[in-house]
Amino acid sequence: MTAKDKLSHSLQGTAPRFNARESWRIFGIMAEFVEATERLNAIRPAVSIFGSARIPPDHMYYMLTEQIARQLSDAGFSVISGGGPGIMEAANKGAFFGKSPSVGLNIQLPMEQQANPYQDISQTFQHFFARKFMFVKFAAAYVVMPGGFGTLDELLEAMTLIQTGKSRRIPVILVHGPFWQGLLDWFRDRLVAERMIHPDDLDLVQVIDKPEDVVEAIFKHYETRGFLPLPEEHELMLNL
Fold first, then answer.
1. 3 state DSSP class of 77
2. Which of 55, 103, 191, 193 has the fewest C-beta atoms lying within 10 Å of its C-beta?
3. How far apart are CA 112 and CA 115, in angstroms?
4. What digits encode the pLDDT tens for the residues 47-64?
5. Domains defined along the chain, listed by start
6. Backbone dihedral angles phi then psi of residue 239, each to the nearest 5 degrees
7. Integer Cα distance of 44 and 101 in angstroms
8. What angle do CA 182, 64, 139 make, to 5 degrees?
């Protein structure tokens, strides 16, 4: 019996069972999208804040995030974070004590993420892609604090969606220039120089260090229009 025959034989009888299970999971995914959309529809305008889960409360990044979130909340923006510890907690905490809702989009992980206590609205997801969709769908701006793989994933996905025209153009703000400078230099020296991206793609992000300047930059972006998606942007988001 060939290796191909052995593989085919080993899969016989399991495929129907597997396919049926996967098909039923689609309903669970649909329910996750519907429930989250219904719960979050009233939070606009909102700003999504990303950053490391490993930052302790006495770290300057934590305190800086809390200040930014508080100023955004007092300015009328709901603040969305991943709902966990570190920068996520700082974002929720700042908004929680401000004037606008603090929203946590929690995720179920093998090593269970503990939801922070500073959430006016807490929504839990099983699937990363559903959670990431909600970060994009409801955000009028992205504020990206120092972080690891998850933070970079959110940043690069936002930039990709905007670059490819699959998402509307919103402010993507990197906070704390010294942390991000090496990455931005690499974008310019490698990606632009080797024509992997267009030089104008670097304009998709801006680096800002002060909380009040973050708020000002977001207002400036929307000064000639409202915060809600325009009709053509709304149609775009439906096809995200």
1. coil
2. 193
3. 9
4. 999 999 999 999 999 999
5. 45-238 (3.40.50.450)
6. -105, 20
7. 10
8. 80
Q: Which residue in 143, 111, 105 sits closest to 127, CA to CA?
A: 105
SS3 state at 184 = helix
Q: Which amino acid is at 160?
A: T
Q: CA triplet 195, 148, 109: central angle to 5 degrees? A: 125
Q: pLDDT value at position 238? A: 74
**Residue pair 131/150 in contact by the 8 Å Cβ criterion:** no
Positive or negative: CA dihedral 155, 55, 178, 80: positive
Single-letter amino acid, residue 238:
L
Please give the mean pLDDT across all residues of the chain: 91
Task: Give CA–CA dist 19/14, Å, rounded.
Answer: 9
Inter-CA distances, 16 with 5, 13, 26, 27, 216, Å: 18, 7, 16, 18, 56
Antiparallel, parallel or unpaired: β 141-144 and 102-107: unpaired
pLDDT at position 99 is 97
The DSSP letter of residue 207 is E
CB 151 within 8 A of CB 51: yes
Q: In what order do the strands lie in the sheet with 78-81?
A: 121-125, 102-107, 78-81, 46-50, 141-144, 172-175, 206-208
Which residues 6+ apart lie within 8 Å of 9 measured at CB? 1
- Our CA dihedral for 152, 118, 113, 84, rounded to 10 degrees, sits at 10
> pTM value?
0.88
What six digits make up the tokens of 132?
């990431």
